[in-house]
Amino acid sequence: MKIDKYLASLWLVSRRNAKKTFKENIITVNGAEILDHTYLLHEGDVIGYGDENIVFKSLVVILLHKPAGYVCSDIPEGRHKSYRDLLDDCAYKETLHVAGRLDADTTWLVLLTNDGVLNHQIISPKKKMTKIYEVESEKILSDTDCRQLEHGVTLDDGYTTLPAQVEKISDKKIRLFLHEGKYHQVKRMLEAVDNKVTKLHRTQIGRCMLWDLPEGKRKEIVEADIFSVEK
Predict the structure, then answer these.
(1) Is the whole-model pTM more than 0.85?
(2) How far apart are CA 183 and CA 112, in angstroms?
(3) Is 103 part of the annotated catalytic residue set?
(4) Considering the chain, what is the average pLDDT of its residues?
(5) How many Å separate Cα 222 from the centre of its chain?
(6) 3-state secondary structure at position 71
(7) What is the reported pLDDT for 228?
């Protein structure tokens, strides 16, 4: 990728004024000053610009422990902040997008990536990527309710969910394994069995878990952390 395009994607320079920017600022790659704004970057190149040293990466994957009150939108929504407000010191912030959104009141695991293909692999039902949720309900979840959730329930728009797996933790708490991610799906599934979600956490996507990551913090991972058997 050309260096001006990459720095523009990070919102550090304007491609329209890139030539002028490179003349007026010292920009380096691996310690050598670069004057050509069309210089072609290679994986792992270290770009020096101002006070920042940025490693050029074609693929970035971030694991984020999302607290309640943050939306998975690139911009704030009403009184809720964007997840990007948790990434202020991340050089790749402007290139990242959520792979599988969570509601403002749903917490724990969010994956962010700059790669559209990987994003699709995570969210597409055809890829059968497992997402695991801990669900607390308003009313007791009977064995019949759990069987209905496992076999598939019809949502308010007429869509019937794919088969799921349910592990009962207590009368009002289950662990729900899904292979799709429809809008507000878990909440709507509980409504389909005449119940209501009171707390919702996503604990796992594929093989990827939060491990010991504190709330509001992030960790850069690699694609294999999502798909491989071992962490």
Answers:
(1) yes
(2) 18
(3) yes
(4) 93
(5) 13
(6) strand
(7) 58
Token duo for residue 46 = 């270290």
Residue 156 phi, psi dihedral angles, 5° rounding: -65, -15
- 69-91 pLDDT tens trace: 999 999 999 999 999 999 988 99
Q: Tell me how far apart the alpha carbons of residues 231 and 226 are, in angstroms, rounded to a whole number.
A: 9
Whole-number Å distance between alpha carbons of 5 and 22: 13
* Token couple for 55: 């490693």
Q: State the residue for tokens 């902040």.
A: 81
Point out the domain boundary residue: 17, 36, 55: 55
Look at residue 210 and tell me if it is in a domain: no
Q: What is the CA radius of gyration of the chain?
A: 21
Catalytic residue, from 36, 89, 103, 143: name it. Answer: 103
State how far the Cα of 53 lies from the Cα of 42, in Å rounded to an integer. Answer: 15
Give residue-wise pLDDT tens across range 1-37: 999 999 999 999 998 898 999 999 999 999 999 999 9
- Could you list the residue range(s) of the whole structural domain that residue 184 is in? 130-205
Q: Please state the separation of Cα 53 from the chain's center in Å.
A: 24
Contacts of residue 195, defined as CB under 8 A and 6 or more positions apart, other chains included, come to 137, 138, 139, 141, 145
The CATH number assigned to the domain holding 104 equals 3.30.70.580
Domain count along the chain: 3
Place of tokens 């349910």: 166
DSSP structure class, residue 40: B
- Strand 27-29 to 165-170 pairing: unpaired
Examine residue 211 and state whether it is found in any structural domain, yes or no.
no
Cα–chain center distance at 32: 35
